[in-house]
Amino acid sequence: MKLLHFTDIHLTTPGETIGGRDPNVNFDKALAHALKDHSDAELLVITGDLSDWGDRDDYVRLRARLDQLELPVALCIGNHDDRDTFLSVFPEYEGADGFVQNARDTSAGRCLLLDTWGPETHAGHFCERRLRWLDCQLAEHDGPFLIFMHHNPIPTHIGPVDEIKLLDDVPFRKLIGRHASKIRHIFFGHCHLPLAGSTAGVPTTSLRGTNHAGFSVFSEPKMLCASDLPEAYGVAFIKPDHITIHMVEYGYNGAVRAEGSPDYANWNRASMQR
Ligand SMILES: [Fe+2]
Ligand SMILES: [Fe+2]
């Protein structure tokens, strides 16, 4: 299965920019770029921060845009979203206990879309009720599972970024550890950074968002750091015996050269172009 992973699209009132970039324009550009190469993707998952300020109009425009796609889409909410406002436009996403938590089957397994949202905070939350729901989901099906969530389930070890990580990450990882053999991968967003690691033994990745970019500054004690690195989206190839995930920097405007043959016989110091 091929899956597209978009995150942190941060849609704004048309014309409003973030970091000098227009999130609406960039979301459209990312979609066009991704669908040009990957119209055969089975699913697009957007892991939260759908709207920058949780405005209803952003969700209405998002819904209209997604309705135009032939590609099935699954959504998570992030800290910039507003759960009630989101659900007023996307009522079908209301899951157990009123959370935006859902399961969706694909040819590569069952996707679990988690809700790590908490009121009046940028940090992530995963309370007892959400832990119980996830535990039941993982127990009642043989898997394999793919998990999608907004907040980072592992610390980045960058102080200000980790102040707003999933605060309940220890019980979350304990639960994941109990079911790790059935879970193939955890996809997350929030940090606006390309990250790879593991959560209680389960491989885990994140990527830069489709609009503004972070930078790993380990010496900054207080503030979150932004950069002008290219906008990006992810493409995951999920096969029975491997998973490969690319972060495609579609916002890169420099040259891309076709050079250097993979044929070893052409590796000639005098004649090859590099
Ligand atoms: Fe974000
Ligand atoms: Fe976020």
Structural account:
This protein has 274 residues and is of the alpha/beta class. It has a single domain (2-266), classed as Metallo-dependent phosphatases (Purple Acid Phosphatase, chain A, domain 2, 4-Layer Sandwich), CATH 3.60.21.10. It is 22% helix and 23% strand. The chain has helices spanning 23-37, 56-67, 83-89, 128-139, 159-162, 169-178, and strands at residues 2-6, 43-47, 73-76, 102-106, 109-113, 145-149, 183-188, 195-199, 202-206, 213-214, 226-227, 233-239, 242-248. The protein has a 6-stranded mixed sheet with strand order 4-5-6-7-9-8. It is globular, with a radius of gyration of 19 Å. The model has no long low-confidence stretch (mean pLDDT 97). The structure holds fe (ii) ion (2 copies).
